[in-house]
Amino acid sequence: MVGWGTVGKRAAIVIGVNTTGSLTPLRAAVTGAREVAQWLTSDGFDVETITDETKPLEARDIKNSVLRVLDPPGRYDKLVIYFAGHGYLNGTSETWLLSGAPDDPNEAIDQSLSAEFARSCSVRSVTFISDACRSVPQTLTGNRVSGVSIFPNRTNSMDVEIDRFFATRPGDAALEIPEVEASKRYVGLFTEILKNCHINPPPDLISKSVLEGEPAVVIPCRRLKETLPQLVDDAAQSKSILLTQLPQLRLECGEGAFLARAQFIKGATLDFQPSRGTSVGATPQRATHGSSLDPNDPSRLYYSPDVKDALNSPQFRGDINRFLTSQDLISDLRTGLQVIGKPVRRVLDGRRAIRSSDRGSFVIDLHRRHGENAHTVLVEFEDGSGGAIAILRDYVATVFANEQGIQSISYVPGFGSPRRDEYEDQRSRTERLRSIAAAAAKNGVLAVDRADAKKFGDLVRAAKRWDPTLGFYASLAYAEVGLIERVRSVAYYMRDDLQVDFFDVALLSGTMDSAGELFPFCPALNQSWMYLAPRGHRLPEQLERAGRKRMQSTWTTFTPEGFIEIEKFYRRRARE
Question: With contact defined as beta carbons under 8 Å apart, do 207 and 220 qualify?
Fold first, then answer.
């Protein structure tokens, strides 16, 4: 049993949106929200329920609800934000759509941004529960939905733990299923199983705590993490052999943290039981897809069991292999750039434009630039899209791009550079780590859990001397789960080692005030853009406009319209 913990008053804001713009109306969102509100109210939460049953739901409605919980500060120990409705995955930012979206791009909740602002609220534990799709929008209007934070812009010294319960993994849809034909009522599968996990749970799923001064039997979140994905997927497959749904729980909490009390009701049982022989409360042994992990694969040192399924999926393994094969180094470059996978129209290096060679390589001679350890170039692809790439002295940057934009960037010590021999000794491991990190970022599993983020960051940061992008990935993994001191450690090391300040690392670590010139001059990773506002940093207006015109890629890629803006900024900067 986990030791006794103590929790004070709890609040919940429960949101249900059935109708969003012209999207297909949902049946289960409001129903699910009402049932969750009833469940949490019976468990002692102060609950506010907000739905679109009587009028369209606006972002300000939810912002006002959050303010009512936060003011005056210190009333609550825990806040749960539940959402049922349509959702998008823009880059790696989770977006919940409200009534006016996608026509109004700001009538949506940026869950990732809200979580980051929640770190400065006055409640020590905030849990987001999302029974929504995490699918990539297929239209231009969908891609333009940005969303807002529902938490205010405040400062607070409290260490706030952020836990996130997602109904699906990135890129997947959250299933609605007919409950029983006689009832003609639809339920959100994830919501139904989550609620039912708290009814008559087996002994290995429960623990003891103290809730508002009274002993309580609870379901620890980390035991739910072991159990819930299997139960939901089994329930989906019990409805149809073709259905699959695997939730994702991203936890920062300790072992004793919980969502709600266990309820012991005479005669009640779980609506859905595991169909593949997994007992409730045991670590699930899920079927994997494709080949199993190589025991020598460095990723095994990092990923927890529930994430190994993603690692073994054909998509993930395919991404790793693609990124591995895209790292062939042109051996005669000492400092330069090569682009693989997508035709390049030109590279802008200061005031000059370098046309693409047949090999897709560009020699950038930093040795002729006195005292310069890095500078930024622009890469424009044949379709007019492009990105800003940092060029580092004595490194060759390799950009791998496809029709969705830049999917990976890597750096390798160039021919004749002092670090080349060191790199050759570590080459196989470094390339493997780099490919795993790029695939994890692309598939949204870079930081699934605070414990995983620590392991992953510690694993890849050791190789950042030979490829600085591993420092980028480590910084992002740490930042996503609030490990800011570890991000600062990466920032200080990379500054000392390379004599370069990288935009993403400085932004994520909160060290921009002490940094010199930043490379490149805007976030290199698409996900880093989300941290600009929470870190209190504003870009020049032209860069902000360009930032609103980005493609759905792992590394920042501007649309043709965005690239025009970025080129104007770049040329003006070169003249100054």
Answer: yes
181 in helix, strand or coil? Answer: coil
The H-or-E segment that residue 97 falls in is strand 93-97
Single out the residue of 436, 513, 444 nearest to residue 469, CA to CA.
436
Q: How many CB atoms lie within 10 A of CB 418?
A: 8
The structure tokens listed for 86 are 């349509």
> Coil, helix or strand for 377?
strand
Angle, CA 42 vertex, CA 37 and CA 48 arms, to 5°:
35
User: Which range is least confidently modeled, 69-73, 238-242, 470-474, 488-492?
Assistant: 238-242
The answer to whether 272 and 228 have CB atoms below 8 angstroms apart is: no
What does the alpha-carbon distance between residue 133 and residue 111 come to, in Å, rounded to a whole number? 13
Q: CA 520 to CA 389: how far, in whole Å?
A: 6
Per-residue pLDDT at 84 exceeds 60: yes
Report pLDDT digits (tens) over 169-194: 776 666 665 544 433 455 688 899 99
**Rounded to the nearest 10 degrees, what angle do helices 450-461 and 469-480 cross at?**
160
Confidence of residue 291 (pLDDT cuts 50, 70, 90): very low
| pLDDT (0 to 100) of residue 363 | 67
**CA–CA separation, 554 vs 416, rounded Å?**
31
- Kindly provide the residue ranges of all beta strands, DSSP E only, lying in 255-394, ordered along the sequence: 258-261, 336-340, 344-349, 352-355, 361-363, 374-381, 386-392
**How many Å apart are CA 277 and CA 283, to the nearest integer?**
12
**Which string of DSSP letters, residue by residue, matches 492-537?**
HHHHHHHS-EEHHHHHHHT-GGG--SEESSS-SBGGGGGGTTTTT-
Mean pLDDT is highest, among 148-162, 377-391, 420-434, for 377-391
pTM of the model: 0.79
Residue 242 carries which side chain, given as an amino acid letter? Answer: L
